[in-house]
Amino acid sequence: MIFEIIKSEGISHNSYFLGSEGEAAIIDPRRDIDIYLKLARKHDISIRYIFETHRNEDYTIGSLELAKYVDAEILHGSKLNFKYGTKVIEGDTFKLGSLELEVLETPGHTYESISILVRDKTTDKPMIIFVGDVLFPGEVGRVDFFGEEKIPETASLLYESLHEKILPLGDHVIVCPAHTAGSVCGAQIRDQDLTTIGYEKLTNPLLKLDKESFIEHKKNEKVYTPPYFKRMEKNNLEGAPLENPHLEPLNVQEFNGMIKEGAQLVDVRNPTSFCGGHIPGSLNIWSSGFPAFAGYFLDYEDPIIIVDESGSNEFVRRSLIRLGYDNKYGYLQGGFPNWYINGMKCDNLEAWTVDRLKSQIDKGGDFFILDVRKHADREKYPIEGSKHCWVGEIPEKLDNIPENVVVYCDSGYKSTMAASFLKINGYKNVKTLLGGITAWIKRGYPIKK
């Protein structure tokens, strides 16, 4: 048997390559599909099946793109009217060399969710289950996508899927989730790639709840829903356009022309570089945070142009593809140095150290302290007197944020992103806190108990 995990950093997504005796199946492929073709060549194997465990919400799935290059059938659950592929139902089986793949209908996270159970035909014993977003290490899938009023129903379905379909399979069965720690598809996913049914029975607190308590927990769960999810749902239901992987290199004049025409300008350098100097009107989303946060701030209509330290950025290009941004256009040739070497106008963002913030607080300074961390982190240790707005909600809540504001987060990355967005929207007196709450605590400064 051949088993490979394909990780997509930033969105914390796992897809899988499973092979046996010259045949392979792909589970939940991402849209930049070259890795699956490379693995097929490496193992001298033909891709025969492409399984979608559900209509994914946080990335554009790559099934149609992959099917352009291989003779494979696309398979997904029957409780949703996909515009492509073949519907499968409970009990459908597929031969893959010495393996048998069986479909289990496991609704709850979504109504059409399926899990793929793998058996070795020589023993007929369950070995592996690909669960999509039903079960994670230390967590289970969210159930809020159909509205608050539907949560009791979807939570009940998820509980039944877990306790009637998955947990009885045996403690030895390896559980392969579609996401790892950091994904917004589960509230508190543990930082590990794989788990087993037995280990989750021992360690996953949600599996120890009775049904009534489980539903109540889900009703009270706080999770974030990025606005780009709607676009992902549409792409994955109807089939996304076949992606164009190219980002055009733009010289300074072309790049400046795109800015004047209203392109979305994203600077993907780190916060300290951005604060020191950047192109006016830039939104700062640091490179490794791009897939997690771009969907909160960028639209799907206006062209997107990228500036980095030294030209192109392959990780950002792939992130745009995975998030379905077909309106991507290009990047600044030569990076930000090429901009200022050509004498173009530059801007900066004021950055405060924690010492300066503490000093200004002690002096009774008149400014607004904004905490942009997640609710759960905020509740543990906020700075006294600060107010809260999760960074992804800032575009909707600008009216609640006053002009003179100091923004902080965990370490300074999200706060600089938030501050850059505020500046784009006319805030002239906005600062980011370097080091964030981490530096504040290390300096021994007080937090609200």
Automatic annotation (TrEMBL):
GO terms for molecular function: hydrolase activity; metal ion binding; sulfur dioxygenase activity. PROSITE patterns: RHODANESE_3. Gene3D superfamilies: Rhodanese-like domain (3.40.250.10), Ribonuclease Z/Hydroxyacylglutathione hydrolase-like (3.60.15.10). Keywords: Hydrolase, Metal-binding. The keyword Metal-binding applies. GO terms for biological process: glutathione metabolic process; hydrogen sulfide metabolic process. Residues 259-348, 363-449 form the Rhodanese domain. This is MBL fold metallo-hydrolase.
